[in-house]
Amino acid sequence: MSQPFEAFLRRLDRARSMRSVALMGVCNVTPDSFSDGGRYFDAAAARARVDELVAHGADIVDIGGESTRPGAAAVPAGEQLARVLDSVRYAVSIGACVSIDTASPQVALACLEAGACAVNDASCLRDDALAKVVADRRAALILMHARGTQEKMLGFSQYPDAGYGDVLHDVLREWGAAAERARAAGVPPDAIAMDPGLGFAKNARQSAELLARLGEIVRSLDVPVVVGASRKSFLTIADAGAEPTERVGASIAAALYAARAGASIVRVHDVRITRQAIDFSRQLARYLPSSGEVSAGPGGA
Fold first, then answer.
1. 139 near 116, Cβ under 8 Å?
2. 143, 168, 178, 216 — which has fewest CB within 10 A?
3. Reported pTM
4. pLDDT tens digit string along 87-104?
5. Model pLDDT, residue 1
6. Active site residue 19
7. What strand order describes the sheet that includes 60-64?
8. Kind and range of the H or E element at 290?
């Protein structure tokens, strides 16, 4: 029998062979998500959201029961499980590849036992016991760069400019230390993925720079890279004052850029729209001349 992380990697490889990048669809089973404000908090709504994500082409369904927005209070493991376990079981029952978005070892263990194949840790391995759970269950670990807890985050895209020297090098160094602890706990190197943590302990300029330099991150690491830019506040550098649901255009641009820069997974709220953009972009590339230059055509430039 294959291990959960092997199933995760197979799903990832299949998705990348189709469109170069896998789509991770977000299902927030919380009353206080920054992106949807609790739209899927009800169990029936959460199941419907899972159905929607799968129907729209999500390769991975990422289910979480704790908001990671700035200032959000930590949610006890028991409450997280009361929120997410039904959705995880349902998603697994319909054949979805499920990641559980949690920093709690107890939540991770219960969800992996229910059939999830990956843990999406937005804490940069704040608790080494989480890595031990992942190792014991032979699951995949998506390890996101962060500093501190969401309760202590300064606010949306608020962080001192002097908080980093070179933001890319600092993020890689700190993430690498966490990844090493995960490997020491028994997580296989090929079961770890990296997320630079756009918006987490980073201001808008720092997040945008990390995204712009994503190719350097991909070339620096021998692990899949996950990018979660969807609807985040740093995207308002292109449209000041835009609310989360008004940032879809910038979210699509970020996903396209990430895919072209070599990201293995883009974590998105708007799966169908993102899939259309990526697939159509790839279709258009078929019409490019071998030189890579587009002809202006009749009456062109």
1. yes
2. 216
3. 0.92
4. 999 999 999 999 999 999
5. 58
6. no
7. 192-195, 140-144, 118-121, 98-101, 60-64, 22-28, 265-268, 226-227
8. none
Show the low-confidence residues of the chain (pLDDT under 50): 291, 293-301
Go through the chain and tell me how many residues it has: 301
Find out whether 124 and 147 touch, Cβ atoms under 8 Å: yes
The 3-state DSSP class for residue 121 equals: strand
Residue 137: DSSP 8-state: T
Return the DSSP state at 103: S
Q: Domain map of the chain by residue range?
A: 4-285
Q: Assign 3-class secondary structure to 233-274.
A: HHHHHCCCCCCHHHCHHHHHHHHHHHHHHCCCEEEECCHHHH
Q: Which residues, in sequence order, are CB contacts of 275 under 8 Å at separation 6+?
A: 19, 23, 56, 57
Strand pairing of 98-101 and 226-227? unpaired
The amino acid occupying position 136 is D
* One-letter amino acid for residue 192 of the chain: I
Nearest in space to 194 (alpha carbons), one of 148, 150, 157, 141: 141
Torsion angle, CA of 177/150/274/14, rounded to 10 degrees?
Answer: 40
Model pLDDT for residues 18-53, shown as the tens digit of each residue: 999 999 999 999 887 766 667 888 899 999 999 999
Question: Which residue in the list 11, 232, 247, 275 is annotated as catalytic?
Answer: 232
Pairwise CA distance, residues 85 & 143, whole Å = 21
Beta bridge partners of 225: 194
Name the packing angle between helices 204-212 and 167-184 (round to 10°). 80
The answer as to CATH 3.20.20.20 being correct for domain 4-285 is yes
The yes-or-no answer on residue 202 being catalytic is no
Rounded to the nearest angstrom, the gap between the alpha carbon of residue 142 and the centroid of all alpha carbons in its chain is: 8
**DSSP per-residue codes, 202-243:** --HHHHHHHHHTHHHHHHH-SS-BEE--TT-GGGGGSSTT--
